[in-house]
Amino acid sequence: MNHLKSSHLLLFILLLFSLALPGCASTAPAATPASTAAPLPTAAPTTTPTLPVPSLQVERDMAYDETGGADNLADVYYLAPIYPGEKRPAVMLIHGGGWQAGSKEDFAGLALLLVNEGYVVVSINYRLVHGDSNHFPAQLDDVQQAVRWIRHNAAKYGIDPERVTAMGDSAGGHLAALLGVMDTRDDSDPALPGYSSRADCVVDLYGPVDLTSLNPRVPLNVLQVVTQLIGQPYGDAPDLYRQASPIFRIDERTSPFFIAHGDQDLTVPVEQSRRLYLTLQEAGVKAEYLELEGQGHGFTGEANERFIEAMLSYLEGC
Fold first, then answer.
1. Which of 27, 177, 186, 265 has the fewest CB atoms below 10 angstroms from its CB?
2. Which of 123, 170, 213, 273 does the annotation list as catalytic?
3. Catalytic residue status for 273
4. CATH number of the domain where residue 79 is located
5. pLDDT band at residue 50 under the 50/70/90 scheme
């Protein structure tokens, strides 16, 4: 996930240098003999307008929910200056880690890549499961609040509030998918009244999307992680497992999806993403699916390069 595509970064660096270099001076004409030199016309001095060099800004530990403490902080990456009325697409990054581990810093490399491509990037923390605390839907509540916060602060960061993509890997992919299949508008929140929590586009990287059907195909420790997320075994709470499964919430209102998965994933079976893609197609939802041969729970080498190219191409249409 965090292998940057060097050509994209090199292009951005060259762009910075090209903006910083002064214009090349033209060759001066031969001097006119003093005896025949014509007087120069007088005119007001002029200056050539120059564009400021884009400057990477990172605002760290921004509270997207004042009541959440360290669990509800975000890092915002953007290029300054932000011009009045400017609207850039935004990508919200949701880290993986089995809903129990991970941090917004995990996506720092990908955040830099996306900023260099012209996106405002918001990488978030969310409540993690700890023993008997923070079971589902705590994580969903947090990521929905983060989307509302992004839209509330759109003008501050030069964001187009109608172009907010949710991207996540593994457990983060599961939460990103939920943001694409449902919406909430919390009018009771005086700070963020009426803002939609639905992502306009979704990038789901090998996320589990049907928590009711993992049992026969995943290791025991993965099943235990899912049980800890829900707080109860499947037999005691089948409806809650279904509510936590994005695949059962798909309808004609679902946002466009980009899905990527390795066919050798031993943590989240690739069948999860295959079924998600087919279900989206059956519902008439725009979706793209990239299956990477020989890749496991994460991408490396040339496969990662393929993913980056396909993902950036998809984001251009979001």
1. 27
2. 170
3. no
4. 3.40.50.1820
5. low
Task: Provide the domain limits for residue 137.
Answer: 61-316
Q: Quick one: which of 167, 51, 65, 73 has its CA closest to 119?
A: 167
Tens digit of each residue's pLDDT (9 = 90 or more) over 292-315: 999 999 999 999 999 999 999 999
The whole-model pTM stands at 0.84
Quick check: is 26 catalytic?
no
Task: Classify residue 2: in a domain, yes or no.
Answer: no
Summarize the confidence of residues 220-233 as an average pLDDT.
Answer: 93
Q: Where are the alpha helices (DSSP H) in 182-282?
A: 220-230, 238-243, 270-282
Q: Which two tokens stand for residue 226?
A: 């899912």
Percent of the chain at pLDDT > 90 equals: 74
DSSP label at 263? T
For 28-45, what is the mean pLDDT?
42
Asked, for residue 250, whether it belongs to a domain, the answer is: yes
Q: State yes or no: pLDDT of 291 exceeds 60.
A: yes
65 counts as catalytic: no
> Which among 106, 135, 265, 273 is annotated as catalytic?
265
Question: Which one from 3, 8, 152, 297 is the annotated catalytic residue?
Answer: 297
